[in-house]
């Protein structure tokens, strides 16, 4: 059973999206919430938003790539860590510039892991703790133009699963939450990052002004509820994918690489790439 005594929760990337809503809902449930935001400009805004929702939470500037911010978090007595902070870099694997690739992994993998290392050892000394990694369906499957983001989430999957084995003898719970395509703006912003690339546009394989996120997107309520429940210890499953309607498709697509031939589709455009040409931004599931 989950440890019901755990109350002090740190949520990274709480200024927007899943992290924001989970912070609000956990605070409403009575958890002692520390909402970490990337920049100081988000601190007061989040405090005002919490007041509007009539919840009490603590807001701290916490850039997971900043060593000083990470050290500061070690003084907060965190019992539940929700690694939610992340960015998404869109573009073909052969086009994304090196600096953008490095930034993707620094924010999504290296920074959160280093933060977790320090907090996990405090949990071990305390004899209990809960670590929730916000991964993605992209950590289990892939789509064209999200390969570098997906690679960072595949890395999180490996880290989280290994961590679960390594920390079980120390009474530390580890879980993942795997959102699919949800309409929070995140996926569509990922397909705009090319606008700030410092590269030679003439060398790009694709014209990104003509592309959009290749899937219709779901209402995010399912992730809000699941992430809150997993962090609160109300759900004891290790992997938690939303929407559940995509569970069987996700499992089936994990089998595709075992069946694929290197000559499959050569000389033709993959249907998923064509979807990116045909899709409009922020298309909801019908």
TrEMBL record:
State the InterPro entries in the record: NAD(P)-bd_dom_sf (IPR036291), Sc_DH/Rdtase_CS (IPR020904), SDR_fam (IPR002347)
Pfam families, per the entry: adh_short
Q: Is Nucleotide-binding set as a keyword in this record?
A: no
Q: Which UniProt keywords apply?
A: Oxidoreductase
Protein family per UniProt: Belongs to the short-chain dehydrogenases/reductases (SDR) family.
Protein name, please?
Answer: SDR family oxidoreductase
Q: Which organism is it from?
A: Streptomyces hyaluromycini
């Amino acid at each position: 059973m989950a440890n019901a005594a755990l109350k002090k929760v740190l949520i990274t990337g709480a200024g927007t999206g899943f992290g924001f809503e989970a912070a609000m809902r956990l605070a409403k449930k009575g958890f002692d919430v520390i909402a970490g935001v990337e920049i100081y400009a988000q601190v007061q805004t989040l405090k005002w938003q919490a007041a509007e929702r009539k919840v009490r939470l603590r807001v701290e500037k916490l850039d997971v790539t900043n060593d000083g911010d990470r050290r500061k978090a070690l003084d907060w007595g965190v019992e539940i860590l929700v690694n939610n902070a992340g960015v998404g870099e869109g573009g073909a694997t052969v086009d994304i510039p090196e600096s953008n690739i490095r930034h993707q992994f620094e924010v999504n993998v290296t920074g959160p892991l280093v933060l977790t290392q320090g907090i996990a050892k405090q949990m071990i000394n305390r004899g209990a703790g809960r670590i929730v990694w916000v991964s993605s369906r992209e950590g289990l499957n892939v789509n064209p133009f999200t390969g570098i983001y997906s690679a960072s989430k595949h890395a999180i999957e490996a880290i989280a699963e290994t961590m679960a084995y390594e920390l079980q003898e120390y009474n530390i719970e580890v879980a993942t939450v795997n959102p699919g395509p949800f309409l929070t703006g995140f996926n569509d912003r990922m397909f705009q990052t090319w606008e700030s690339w410092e590269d030679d546009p003439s060398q790009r394989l694709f014209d990104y002004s003509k592309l959009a996120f290749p899937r219709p997107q779901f209402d995010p309520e399912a992730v809000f509820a699941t992430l809150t429940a997993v962090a609160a210890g109300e759900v004891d499953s290790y992997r938690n994918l939303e929407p559940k309607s995509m569970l069987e498709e996700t499992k089936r697509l994990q089998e595709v690489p075992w069946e694929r031939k290197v000559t499959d589709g050569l000389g033709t455009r993959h249907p998923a790439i064509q979807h990116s040409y045909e899709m409009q931004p922020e298309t909801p599931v019908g």
